[in-house]
Please model this.
Amino acid sequence: MGLEMLHDQVSQAPVDANSEGPRNPRQDQQAVLNAFAASRHLHPKQLELLRYLNQRRDPRNSTQTVPLSYTHLHHATGITIEHIRRNGLHRLFACGLVSVVYQGLGGTIYRLHYDNPTLQQIFERVGPAPSEPMGTGPDLGPHESELASLERRLAVLTQLEDRRREVQQAEFLNALSVDQRAWLVDTAKTAVDHQEGIRFVRDRFPHYEAQRLRLIEEWVARASYGETVPSRRSTHPTESV
Model:
């Protein structure tokens, strides 16, 4: 569906009666157009991940989700944790649809950059609701059953490993000083600002968050070799004594 056709349909879309406060039809229309442009090329799994995040909005603050772990997202969506970590969330960050509010032992709180009525219209246009995941079924032969069993074991081991990584990252961040956390933010921002092809400052913010998460993964590994995250006042990493 092209943006012009969507523009015509949005102009006739009904206003969500459950939304808080008066809604400006022109602003609603522009929000849907922006959200459609950001999400039209998402992979179905990335779209399903966004759909689930939208369903788990915090009742006390509808702009963000409740705390969610990778393991929880995997069980709720059927998407592998590896895809969620390396393709799903990073793509949503890069498209400007989602960002991180807080990371902790209880999970990550995500900010949704578009309200529920806007995203619901996008889901209706970009793709149908996902079907229920299929089971292994009773017709599998012995080899297929063994393979399915191995895949389930591998999924469990992957979940355990990713949960361990989540806890490790949360403990790593909690141990950093305010200046060290600021250095991670500043370094991520500098790396994105030096990239070509991102003309407008407003388009860089999702990339800042994705780069910060990549830096956290990198420095968790570097810390295990004795390196210390620099602080905003320093410029070079140091080895711990």
Remarks:
- Confidence is low (pLDDT under 50) at residues 1-21, 129-138.
- Residues 145-239 form one domain.
- The radius of gyration is 21 Å.
- The longest strand covers residues 98-104.
